[in-house]
Amino acid sequence: MVQVKGRLQRGLLRLWVVLSLGWIGAVGYHAYSVWPNDLDWQMAFQVFVEKPPKEPPKPGTLGATDPDIVKYSTERQKEIDRKAGIIKPDQEYDGPPDPRWLLAKDIVRPHLKWAFGPPIGVLIIGAALWWAAAGFRKWPQE
């Protein structure tokens, strides 16, 4: 009986690993399919480590805008953020985040949650069910 239990545990864990890798691959493929062609892949890493790019987008690419509009919107956003108490009056303000970074963030974050959330949830639920089922077995009589 002990051998069957050990084989069943290993088999279920292997099944979970295979299905989890397939799931993560499928979510990764979906992220790849919705990623804009003119957005650099390095931006995905910058979203992951929470570091927006410092350099402005090149003219004619995604997120490039007229410098006068950017200057006005930056000043306006600074004023709104100060009134809302988001930034202190003496705090330096770099302006709003790069629109390319915001777009990448809207793609990367949900895909990370969908890639790793369900497999971890299945592992936790499976372990809890296994633990609960183990509690109903008879203990050996001494």
Describe the structure.
The protein is mainly alpha-helical. It has helices spanning 2-34, 42-48, 67-84, 99-134.
Q: What would you say about this model in short?
A:
The chain is an all-alpha fold.
Tell me the major beta sheet.
none
Report the span from N to C terminus.
Answer: 18 Å
Oligomer: single chain
* Average of pLDDT: 77
Number of helices: 4
- Beta-sheet strand percentage? under 5%
What does the overall shape look like?
elongated
Rg measurement, Å = 25 Å
Q: Helical percent range? A: 55-70%
In total, the number of strands is 0
Order of helices and strands: HHHH
Low-confidence stretches: none
Helix/strand class: mainly alpha
Main attributes?
single chain, 142 residues, mainly alpha, 4 helices
Ordered list of secondary-structure elements with their pairings:
Blueprint: H1 2-34, H2 42-48, H3 67-84, H4 99-134
Helix pairs in contact: 1-4, 2-4
